[in-house]
Amino acid sequence: MNIEAIRAGQNKQLSGMNLEDEDFSDCQLDNINLAGANLVGADFSRATLKGGRLDGANLLGANLNQADLRANFLGANLMQADLSNADLRGSNLRGTNLMGAKFFQASLSGAFLSGSNLTGVNLQGADLRGADLRGVNFNSANLKGANLAQADLQGANLSEANLEEADLRGANLAGASLAGANLLCAELEGANLKGVNLDRTCLVGTVININE
Question: What span, in angstroms and rounded, lies between the C-alpha atoms of 148 and 46?
Answer without folding.
Answer: 25
